[in-house]
Amino acid sequence: MTARTARPLPRNGAPVPPQTPAVGAALAANDGPGALALYQQVKDFISRKIQDGSWPAGTRLPSEHALVAQFGMSRMTVNRALRELAGQGRVVRVPGVGSFVAEDKPQSTLLQIANLADDVHLRGHDYACKVLLVERVSASMETAALFGLRTGESVFRAVCVHLENGLPVQLEDRFVNPRVSPDFIHQDFSRQQPSEYLVRTAPYDEMEHVVDAVMPTAEQALQLAMPTAEPCLLLTRRTWMQGVPVTFARFLHPASRYRLGSRFRTDGNAR
């Protein structure tokens, strides 16, 4: 009996696509004046594999080194192709692990406070929350003004990373008014989301959402397992209960892994 070597599997069990040296030769021959840029040829090849279902969501792409050997191109050329595919949301690049065919981006509504864990579970995926800190801090001048407090008064702060199938999709940095939610600091947010707890114990009747496109800091990129050169979507949220500020939160999402959107009727009901 001839021994067979198993192909490596990524976390979700999808096989690594086989390498085909003939493809590299075919692309290398297409170098006439009207030929596509080399990086675009690599992009198109990978995109076709994704589009026709040869490489389904979660499939690990060949490494940059393997693609260089396969296509006979420079590593810089291959890197640009992968970088642009990641920017378009077709590929997810995890530093130190590899590049994977992206799932359809999860979408969060702009007009409601969605339960991220429920959304992840509805997609049949695993949700987890990594709590980085929950503490009492002295309010800066800016934070104090948001809550109608004096500078230096105590507020609660929580920082969490939310993960879908082990991949970070959201970095949450939240401040909470202790006068409205005095027990917030004692909660275990690895078991329930901060927003879930606040909606239940300090239900809002007014909310503000602002969305910005930003670049992550080096620390934020590390926490989200993403390149520092990739843009992010920043959702800033403020809520009030009977006119009293409850929370001020910033939610940072890698743009290639997340999208924001809403649909609403003129009767005011968002969905």
From TrEMBL:
<protein>
    <recommendedName>
        <fullName>Histidine utilization repressor</fullName>
    </recommendedName>
</protein>
<dbReference type="GO" id="GO:0003700">
    <property type="term" value="F:DNA-binding transcription factor activity"/>
</dbReference>
<dbReference type="InterPro" id="IPR050679">
    <property type="entry name" value="Bact_HTH_transcr_reg"/>
</dbReference>
<dbReference type="GO" id="GO:0045892">
    <property type="term" value="P:negative regulation of DNA-templated transcription"/>
</dbReference>
<dbReference type="GO" id="GO:0003677">
    <property type="term" value="F:DNA binding"/>
</dbReference>
<dbReference type="InterPro" id="IPR028978">
    <property type="entry name" value="Chorismate_lyase_/UTRA_dom_sf"/>
</dbReference>
<keyword id="KW-0238">DNA-binding</keyword>
<dbReference type="Pfam" id="PF07702">
    <property type="entry name" value="UTRA"/>
</dbReference>
<dbReference type="InterPro" id="IPR011663">
    <property type="entry name" value="UTRA"/>
</dbReference>
<dbReference type="InterPro" id="IPR000524">
    <property type="entry name" value="Tscrpt_reg_HTH_GntR"/>
</dbReference>
<dbReference type="GO" id="GO:0006547">
    <property type="term" value="P:L-histidine metabolic process"/>
</dbReference>
<keyword id="KW-0804">Transcription</keyword>
<keyword id="KW-0805">Transcription regulation</keyword>
<feature type="domain" description="HTH gntR-type">
    <location>
        <begin position="36"/>
        <end position="104"/>
    </location>
</feature>
<feature type="region of interest" description="Disordered">
    <location>
        <begin position="1"/>
        <end position="21"/>
    </location>
</feature>
<dbReference type="InterPro" id="IPR010248">
    <property type="entry name" value="His_ut_repres"/>
</dbReference>
<dbReference type="InterPro" id="IPR036388">
    <property type="entry name" value="WH-like_DNA-bd_sf"/>
</dbReference>
<dbReference type="Pfam" id="PF00392">
    <property type="entry name" value="GntR"/>
</dbReference>
<dbReference type="InterPro" id="IPR036390">
    <property type="entry name" value="WH_DNA-bd_sf"/>
</dbReference>
